[in-house]
């Protein structure tokens, strides 16, 4: 009995050049730069669209031979809100897929960077890593929020958090729940 | 400890300083690299002149040679990133390289870009440099032989690979860059290589995480372990050798601060506040400490 061997790739999309909400070009603290770089993906972007981008990049960079490595490629999880996703590829081809992801530089004309966080043989480990990653991110933000609270919300970050709380009552922990729900 | 030893500083002239807009964009670059997991970053000053012509343009005052002032311009990144300064000098006329020793006093890392075969030979045999780099987008100045490259590696000189050259697809320059990098990897037998980004302040979205780039390097014939060494061990080696050059004197080393040897904090302290006409941007080396003590005694 031959088993089909796979690899799961956990990736994240970050937007270094987006200049909208919440903070415009402010890199004063770790939290500020984390907020201005880790931004949500456009909600219209679907997993299928990203698969298409990867296939396009494979063809552009590795030709027909590279395209052939995308046979078992599928998106197992994608959340535009956090910009993270998990891809499933056949085991022999994962390097081609990671390289193709690295070469992608825009989605819908907007500059972005694909950042591979983890490559694993089981989807469980990818999920664990994803949770750990977003927890780390949230911890840095929480720390900054506590510091901002001490400032009586005088800093930019404090005001942003206050707005966020009014909007959905959950603050930044929203991202955290999303990942855990899956 | 992941290093990126080449983020281009937006200035190519000794007199024309970058504006606030450029510096802010550069900070954006640093923030992106920080988010991607880098911890040690070197800002690279590339004068537009080659070694033959730079003498005419160099300021006579040595404290004005280094335009990068990390403490003054990047106070936000204190405690987050370790930022170093680097100079890359293009060498076309091998007979005029005396000013390299001058650069060693003010920059953390000294790199050269040889433009002829003779310049490469000279850089390896005679010059005290940390990094040798090439313009990978064009043809290399000569065929790289294992003997010359091996001699340099033996001496502790490292060769640089810039990954931003291979990200832009569908151009001739990229094909040339890939072939050049493969040639370098073959000639060096995968030893003594550095991998850096080489991004400028406008190319913020060209930055990539080190694990992504090491997969690309694997396609070019550098194995996984060596690729991670190019970002970690070998890059730290370069920083360390630069450090030792200014912090050691006759086999005695000055160790300081929490970061031990690879730490800029002590040199950047303004030791000379009491004295008039104090240099601000010069690294105080071991001899400098000695001199300072003598001055204070007087």
TrEMBL record, chain A:
It holds the Pfam family RNase_P_Rpp14. GO terms for cellular component: multimeric ribonuclease P complex; nucleolus; ribonuclease MRP complex. GO terms for biological process: tRNA 5'-leader removal. Keywords: tRNA processing. Coiled coil: none annotated. It comes from the Eukaryota. One of its GO terms (molecular function) is ribonuclease P RNA binding. The keyword tRNA processing applies. Belongs to the eukaryotic/archaeal RNase P protein component 2 family. PANTHER family: RIBONUCLEASE P PROTEIN SUBUNIT P14 (PTHR15441), RIBONUCLEASE P_MRP PROTEIN SUBUNIT POP5 (PTHR15441:SF2). This is DEBR0S4_10990g1_1. The gene is POP5.
From TrEMBL, chain B:
One of its GO terms (biological process) is tRNA processing. Coiled coil: none annotated. It is found in: Nucleus. Gene3D superfamilies: Metal-dependent hydrolases. InterPro entries: Pol/histidinol_Pase-like (IPR016195), RNase_P_p30 (IPR002738). GO terms for cellular component: nucleolar ribonuclease P complex. It holds the Pfam family RNase_P_p30. GO terms for molecular function: RNA binding. Keywords: tRNA processing. The keyword tRNA processing applies. PANTHER family: RIBONUCLEASE P PROTEIN SUBUNIT P30, RIBONUCLEASE P SUBUNIT P30. Belongs to the eukaryotic/archaeal RNase P protein component 3 family. This is DEBR0S5_06502g1_1. It comes from Dekkera bruxellensis.
């Amino acid at each position: 009995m031959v088993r089909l061997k796979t690899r799961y790739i956990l990736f994240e999309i970050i937007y270094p050049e987006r200049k909208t909400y919440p903070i415009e070009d402010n890199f004063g603290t770790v939290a500020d730069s984390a907020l201005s770089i880790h931004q949500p993906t456009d909600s219209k972007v679907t997993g299928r669209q990203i698969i298409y981008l990867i296939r396009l990049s494979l063809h552009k960079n590795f030709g027909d031979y590279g395209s052939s490595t995308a046979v078992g490629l599928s998106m197992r999880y994608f959340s535009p809100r956090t910009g993270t996703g998990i891809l499933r590829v056949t085991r022999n081809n994962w390097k081609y897929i990671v390289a193709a992801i690295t070469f992608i530089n825009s989605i819908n004309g907007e500059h972005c960077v694909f950042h591979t966080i983890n490559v694993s043989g089981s989807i469980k480990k990818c999920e664990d890593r994803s949770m750990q990653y977003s927890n780390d991110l949230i911890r840095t933000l929480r720390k900054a929020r506590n510091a901002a609270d001490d400032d009586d919300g005088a800093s930019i970050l404090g005001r942003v958090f206050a707005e966020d709380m009014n909007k959905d009552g959950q603050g930044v922990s929203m991202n955290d729940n999303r990942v855990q729900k899956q | 400890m992941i290093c990126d030893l080449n983020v281009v500083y937006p200035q190519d002239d000794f007199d024309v300083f970058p504006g606030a807009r450029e510096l802010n964009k550069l900070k954006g670059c640093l923030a992106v690299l920080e988010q991607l997991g880098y911890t040690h970053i070197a800002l690279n000053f590339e004068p537009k002149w080659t070694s033959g012509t730079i003498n005419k343009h160099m300021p006579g005052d040595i404290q004005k040679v280094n335009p990068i002032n990390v403490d003054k311009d990047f106070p936000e990144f204190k405690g987050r990133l370790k930022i170093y300064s680097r100079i890359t000098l293009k060498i076309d006329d091998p007979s005029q390289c005396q000013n390299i020793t001058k650069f060693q006093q003010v920059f953390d890392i000294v790199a050269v870009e040889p433009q002829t075969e003779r310049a490469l030979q000279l850089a390896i045999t005679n010059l005290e440099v940390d990094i040798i780099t090439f313009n990978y987008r064009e043809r290399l100045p000569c065929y790289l032989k294992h003997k010359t490259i091996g001699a340099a590696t033996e001496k502790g000189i490292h060769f640089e690979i810039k990954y931003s050259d291979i990200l832009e697809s569908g151009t001739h320059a990229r094909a040339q860059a890939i072939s050049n990098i493969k040639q370098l990897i073959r000639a060096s037998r995968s030893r003594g290589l550095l991998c850096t980004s080489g991004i400028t302040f406008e190319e913020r979205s060209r930055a990539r995480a080190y694990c992504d780039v090491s997969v690309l390097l694997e396609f070019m014939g550098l194995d996984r372990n060596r690729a991670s060494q190019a970002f970690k061990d070998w890059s730290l080696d370069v920083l360390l050798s630069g450090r030792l050059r200014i912090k050691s004197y006759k086999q005695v080393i000055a160790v300081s601060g929490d970061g031990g040897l690879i730490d800029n904090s002590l040199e950047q302290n303004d030791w000379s506040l009491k004295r008039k006409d104090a240099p601000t941007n010069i690294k105080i080396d071991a001899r400098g400490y000695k001199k300072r003590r003598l001055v204070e005694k007087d």
